[in-house]
Design goal:
Largest sheet: 6 strands, parallel
Strand content: 15-25%
Strand order of the largest sheet: 1-4-3-2-5-6
Oligomer: single chain
Radius of gyration: 22 Å
Distance between the termini: 36 Å
């Protein structure tokens, strides 16, 4: 998949495509349905597929970073899109200039002049342009004028509600990984590069692969049963702590992911790992001393192993 950062990097060879537009946060079942239709239409027309998305997400721009946490960072979104036969990802920088574009200007400048789209697939609730005035009806009329067709994807239902990033985020906040997995079509995943930590895990007998997330706060925290990808043998089982580590530094606000891999003794600093969250064991807790923390980690590891054994028999 080709990643194109900004409309100014579009070239003449990028013209002529089947496209879709959206945040695609989490690439859930609804997004997957859109991508499936995108691939079918592209195959029918013999054209490449282009996903148009934004960074930062529009809601993050308008809320000045105070909006609900996204499900996936950009790298995770890119990794997910690669699995769905997407040829190109056009990443538009959502800034003051982009926010000021009217629906008409967006269609003319991006879809027509730059991409020369032949077919557009959008979700039923898609809105765009200054004041969110652009919608399916507008795009249908614009398509007649500029020579492209538009397909409208209906909501993807799950139970009595539609699948949405908001619904998945709420499930993760509540620790409901079962519902999140059903809506995503796969376990919730975080990825990162293994860094050097404070070596505390080594001191107390539980080596950990540590990852940090900077300004990104995932929509869940606590102690989890996990499976890890990116090692020589995968998936590798383990137990993980995700949160601000209150026992280590009560003033810390940055999220860390610390994964204890079962029966594993290799040095993997610098490796990029993907961690699937299978089951939440408990919330993150501040302990008064390292002995209490060590005892709880031991219990967490036993509980995680028991869960994984039980999972094998399902």
């Amino acid at each position: 998949m080709e990643l194109i950062r900004g409309e100014y990097n579009l070239r003449p060879e990028h013209r002529g495509c089947v496209a879709t537009i959206g945040n695609f946060d989490g690439i859930h079942l609804g997004h997957q349905a859109v991508l499936g239709q995108l691939a079918e239409k592209a195959d029918e027309l013999g054209l490449p597929t282009t996903v148009i998305s934004f960074e930062p997400l529009p809601r993050e721009y308008f809320s000045h970073g105070r909006s609900a946490t996204r499900l996936a960072r950009l790298r995770e979104k890119v990794q997910a899109l690669k699995r769905y036969s997407v040829d190109r990802l056009l990443l538009l920088h959502f800034n003051e200039a982009m926010a000021a574009l009217t629906a008409e200007e967006f269609v003319q400048q991006i879809l027509v002049d730059k991409l020369g789209i032949r077919h557009l697939v959008i979700g039923d609730d898609f809105r765009f342009g200054k004041g969110r005035h652009g919608d399916f009806e507008y795009l249908t009329e614009a398509g007649k004028q500029h020579g492209f067709q538009v397909s409208n994807m209906l909501p993807f239902p799950f139970g009595e509600e539609r699948v949405s990033s908001t619904r998945i985020r709420e499930a993760l906040i509540q620790g409901d990984l079962v519902t999140a997995e059903k809506l995503l079509g796969r376990p919730y995943r975080l990825s990162g590069r293994v860094i050097h930590g404070n070596k505390l895990g080594r001191k107390i007998g539980f080596h950990t692969a540590n990852m940090r997330f900077g300004n990104y706060n995932p929509p869940l925290s606590g102690i989890f049963v996990v499976e890890v990808y990116g090692l020589d043998h995968e998936p590798w089982p383990g137990v993980a702590s995700l949160g601000v580590r209150p026992t280590i530094d009560e003033n810390n606000t940055e999220y860390f992911l610390e994964v204890h891999l079962f029966d594993f003794d290799q040095l993997i600093y610098g490796r990029h790992l993907m961690v699937d969250f299978l089951h939440k064991l408990r919330d993150e807790v501040k302990y008064d001393n390292l002995d209490d923390l060590t005892a709880q980690i031991q219990q967490d590891a036993e509980d995680a192993r028991a869960y994984l054994e039980q999972r094998k028999t399902r």
